[in-house]
Amino acid sequence: MTSRVGPFTLVALVFLSCNGSEFTPLEVPEGCNPLAFDYDCLLPYPSDFFLMEDDLMPSGRRLVHGPAAPSYPDGKPADPTAPFTLDGFSRVGPILALFPGGIDSSMLPSPRQTWDASIEPDNPTVIVEADTGRRVHHLAELDPLAESDERRVLFIRPLERLADGKRYVVAIQGLADRQGRPVNAPRGFQRIRDGTYRGDPVLEAVGQRFENEVFPVLEAAGLGRDDIILAWDFTVSSRENSTADMLSVREQAMAFLESHQPSIEIDYVQQDYDEVIWERIDGRFESPMFLDSAEPG
Length: 297
What we know:
Helices cover about 15% and strands about 20% of the residues. The chain is of the alpha+beta class. The protein folds into two domains: about 1-240, Sandwich (Immunoglobulin-like); about 240-285, no CATH class.
């Protein structure tokens, strides 16, 4: 899959950094996460960059990918969240980042190590529970199916179910490429980390939020700001948002059973059906349907 990139936001301004040096505002494609837009419009992911204010949602925010949503090679959207109304991210999904120059995978916490290796102070990948400062055990690996390093995603896989409604901060530090050279921060994040984002119309709001909500969490967890090559945060969907549909299904099914006696009709029974199946039973029963179609698939 590829990421759709909208029209560029063209800015003709030149602004001054806090140390007096001149910087041209970054030309970030519309809707892209500005942290690493040079590498991919969507990544790193999941990211609170894609949560928009919405008072109708349990958490007060709604997940909107917009132009950053991935697409198939034919251009059709491939956003798996589009049919759903979500107020956060998965409790069990992987965390993704991309460094197109390649990464020395021997540095990453793997199943060959103890789980505690992933929460050591110098571990290159870090997940911190924002409100407690607790580090989360995890594994990290590179996509083995990618055809080249340009699109070889780094997967960070938490080894626990993340908590409903909680915010997590992710950081990556001290990576090297296959030749042993340090991996540099992407331009957007580098400016935010170094404080040279002020005056940039795209980075200003993001940078201020990082100063207040992201860097303090990482610094409290023992990370040196200058050592971080990428950091971001994301919030897990609320319990209400994650479970409301299935709880409604259960309630409707129970109400149906209270007024409808279950009826099962057996049409066909065959023993010794084949070498794998001892007995096959074909039948019918009536129940509420919560799918778009009764057809299989």
